[in-house]
Design brief:
This protein is an alpha+beta fold and about 200 residues long. It has 2 domains: about 1-150, 60s Ribosomal Protein L30, Chain: A, CATH 3.30.1330; about 150-195, no CATH class. Helices cover about 35% and strands about 20% of the residues. Helix 2 (about 20-35) packs parallel to helix 3. The termini are far apart. Bound molecules: zinc ion (2 copies). One zinc ion binds near residues 161, 162 and 182. One zinc ion (ZN) binds near residues 159, 162 and 179.
C-alpha cells in the first residue's frame, strides 16, 4: 500500500509541480474511499463517483487516487470549504462520507518528530499514519439524484431563446419553451450589453 501511495504522490506532484500535505491527504482519502466501498482504485471505469467538498490540491489528490475526475464526469465539487468527500458506488448507490480527523494535524509530529516545521511534519506524517488516525467516516444517503447528475450521454438541446446548446438535461422547460438557466433567470452572471459581441 505504501508503494502505491508513493507512486500516486509522484503523479500528483507532477500535476502540481509541488507536493503538499493536502495532496497527500487527498490521495490517502481516495484510497480509503475505494477500500471501504470495496472498489479497485484508481478505477478504469466510471463506477465510483465522488462529491468533493472543496476544490484545490486535496481534490486533485482524490482524483489521482480514485480515477474520478471532473473531466470524466465522475467527480463533482460541492463547495463547502471542507476537506471531506463522499464516495459513491453508482451501481449499488452505497455512499460513504470520509472526513479527516481534527486530531491528525497534531498527531503529525509524532510521526515526524525531526521535521523542521509543521508543514513538513504533515507532509511526511500523512504518508505514514494509519487510516484510522487520519479519517473517520459515515454512511450517508444522497439528497441529490445521481441519475440527474450523470444524465444521458450525448443528450443535447438548444435554448429556444438564446440559441446556445445545453447538455446533460440542464434545460428548463417553461410553458413548453426550452430554455437555458440564464434565459430562465437563474444565473451566476449578467451581461454587460455595450461591450458584448452579439
Ligand atoms: Zn498544494
Ligand atoms: Zn438561453
Amino acid at each position: 500500500m505504501l508503494v502505491n501511495v508513493e507512486k500516486l504522490l509522484e503523479k500528483s506532484a507532477n500535476l502540481h509541480t509541488h507536493l503538499c500535505p493536502r495532496q497527500v491527504l487527498g490521495v490517502r482519502m481516495g484510497l480509503f474511499g475505494g477500500q471501504i466501498l470495496d472498489l479497485p482504485v484508481p478505477q478504469k471505469n466510471k463506477r465510483m463517483f465522488v462529491f468533493m467538498e472543496t476544490d484545490g490540491c486535496g481534490a486533485d489528490g482524490v482524483s489521482i487516487a480514485t480515477g474520478c475526475w471532473i473531466g470524466k464526469r465522475t467527480m463533482r465539487v460541492v463547495d463547502f470549504g471542507k476537506m471531506a468527500a463522499t464516495f459513491v458506488d453508482s451501481l449499488t448507490e452505497q455512499a460513504i462520507r470520509v472526513i479527516p480527523l481534527a486530531t491528525a494535524r497534531k498527531r503529525a509530529w509524532d510521526y515526524a518528530p525531526s521535521a523542521s516545521d509543521r508543514w513538513s511534519a504533515q507532509l511526511s506524517a500523512y504518508q505514514q499514519m494509519p487510516d484510522e488516525e487520519l479519517f473517520t467516516y459515515q454512511y450517508v444517503t444522497l439528497a441529490v439524484s445521481l441519475r440527474y447528475i450523470l444524465s444521458r450521454h450525448g443528450y443535447r438541446v438548444n435554448c429556444e431563446i438564446c440559441g446556445e446548446e445545453i447538455m446533460n438535461e440542464r434545460e428548463i422547460i417553461r410553458e413548453e419553451t426550452v430554455m437555458c438557466q440564464f434565459c430562465a433567470g437563474s444565473c451566476y452572471y449578467s451581461i454587460k450589453e455595450q461591450e458584448s459581441k452579439k
